[in-house]
Amino acid sequence: MKAIILAGGYSKRLWPITREIPKCFLEFGGKPVIDHIMEKIEQVDDIDEVIVSTNKKFEYFFVHWIGNSKYKKQIKLIVEETTENEKKLGAIGAINYVLEKAEITEDFVLIAGDNLFECTLKDFVEFFKSKNTISIAVNDVKSFERVRKLGVVELNNDKVVSFEEKPQQPKSTTICSGIYAFPKTEIETIKNYIKEGNNPDATGFLLEWMIKNNHEINGWSFEEKWFDIGTHTSFNEAKKFYQDMKGTVLVTGGLGYLGYHVIEELITAGYNIKVLDLDLYGFPPDEKYDFIKGDIRKEEDVIRAMEGVDYVVHLAALSNDPSCDVSPDKGIEINYNGTKLVAKTAKKMGIKRLVFPSSCSVYGAAEGVVSEEDKTGPLTLYAQTKLASEHYLRSLVDEKFDVGIFRFATLFGHSNQMRFDLVANIIPVEAVVDGEMKLFGGNQSRPLLHVNDAARAIVAAIQHPEPLKGEPLNGGNTEQNYTIRELTENIQKNIFPDINIKEFPDNVDARSYQVNFDKVKTVLNYETKTDIIKGVSEIAEKLKNKEYGDPRADQYFRVKHIKSQNIVL
After folding, report:
1. What residues does each domain of the chain span?
2. Phi, psi dihedrals of residue 553, rounded to the nearest 5°
């Protein structure tokens, strides 16, 4: 008997986690999924060879793994000649490919490579041998909502009487776990299924077809834990079960521009995520995290969101000067009083650390290059609320409650929750859409920071082993201090050489500051990755491909959106 492990998918639903690593090499309980599977296979004496199916993109992982294999079973690798999701063979196509390439002529067990299961594979094989028919391992997940994304089974005693792949109205809560056994007599059936041009994707489609064509299938039921590592929800559930999750992070304002990148980076780093957000700007929540629609000004919402949380990243705020100027009272209420409530509740509920993004705008109109030790002088209400929040947060720090504070440079770069009301982000819109770049003033200085680099700094603060004690860290790169003229002309020279700049010399923003960012490099061992040209080029390419729809839409501009939607703050 052979065992086939299918590991040829690209797992786009789990990106960014699986963008550059196959699902079966994700670790749970200190070892990758494929080792969990192999340990089960090793216990089955009937299996004499394991065949692993993957794609060309991830071939290296498996070659390295097989080369360091500790297992007694012989392992063979079959590689599909595909490097991207759109060209993959599909699960059934991959099975057919393996059957032909490995010249299999005997019974075989088939296991999906994203399966984590605590049942005994040996018992399943014994069941298969007793039936001598197609057999599947089934599990009652006791949730109609959950089974809508899985293959749903109806049993009459052991016999499978119906099978539906991802039904909208499931007939039962029993699912096929991705563990199968096929007698050698069905090998030609699988090959004929492909030859007839049937759907080569999920294995469930093959089972549906076989039942319709009167092939007997039996289901072996097990009650032990089972996880299909195909979504962020199941990924997090498995992490919790195997006690491998680093902790739960609450991200307030997670549906915002920076929030998207913070969540992606935290998930990649192995954290479970909760998001508290009012959902003002029309960017939908994601299944990757637990979403709570709520207000940081309401104690009951904050307490509910912080249950079971280890860390807080407090992003929720009116996020620029014009937003605060729309309603100064609301600016203070949200940015300062809301921060006080979040921090006070976090400390009361035993949160380990809160990370807060302040702003370099607290330096106001500074001369020379300023550092954390220099005087602040906020010129706007937004900057004043940030500085006041810093002071309050520092007052809460003690041995049990730590605070990390970043005075971030002006952000730029693409986000799936995009903003174009930022100085560097609007320039490619003007160039691509308007055919003319605008320069207001020009001599005022700004430090700039890619939004993903800001997110990486926040994760570094969450993970830092020593107390941060509420001491502010300037977040950015000293080499990315620009005057607005230097910024605009640099972008013109490197990205839009054929686009003219129209100047408005009398329209000058009083804020001007250059900032030193050496301290954050020392404290957190942190370096930025994305410079202004790379970041703006990405936006320009997406604009040319019309990936933002209408980049002048109100949704991308905080104040315009608040006003046009008549949002009551």
Report:
1. 2-233, 246-419+448-481+511-531
2. -60, 145
Q: Which amino acid is at 157?
A: N
Neighbouring residues of 400: CB distance < 8 A, sequence distance ≥ 6: 347, 350
22 prior amide bond cis, ω within 30: no
Chain-centroid distance of CA 116 in Å reads: 21
User: Using CA atoms, how far apart are residues 213 and 326, in angstroms rounded to an integer?
Assistant: 67
Task: For 58-157, list the strands marked E by DSSP.
Answer: 74-80, 108-112, 115-117, 134-140, 151-156
Instruction: Name which of 11-15, 154-158, 240-244, 516-520 the model is least confident about.
Output: 240-244
- Alpha helices (H) in 59-116, listed in sequence order: 59-67, 91-101
Read off the DSSP letter of residue 430. Answer: I
The tokens for 237 are: 């559930």
pLDDT digits (tens, 9 = 90+) for 264-302: 899 878 788 999 999 999 899 988 888 999 999 999 999
The CATH code belonging to domain 246-419+448-481+511-531 is 3.40.50.720
Q: In the block, which residue shows the tokens 């330096």?
A: 363
Q: Write the CA distances from 442 to 217, 420, 445, integer angstroms.
A: 74, 19, 8
The residue assigned the tokens 């018992």 is: 123
In CATH terms, the fold of domain 2-233 is: Spore Coat Polysaccharide Biosynthesis Protein SpsA; Chain A (3.90.550)
* 439: β partners: 503
How many Å apart are CA 202 and CA 151, to the nearest integer?
A: 9
Q: Which residue has the tokens 């097989």?
A: 66
Asked whether the beta carbons of 372 and 474 are under 8 A apart, the reply is yes
- Residue 433's alpha-carbon distances to 69, 142, 428, 440, 442, in angstroms, are 55, 52, 8, 18, 22
Number of other CB atoms surrounding residue 85 within 10 Å: 12
Overall average pLDDT of the 353-381 stretch = 94
Q: Which two tokens stand for residue 420?
A: 């174009």
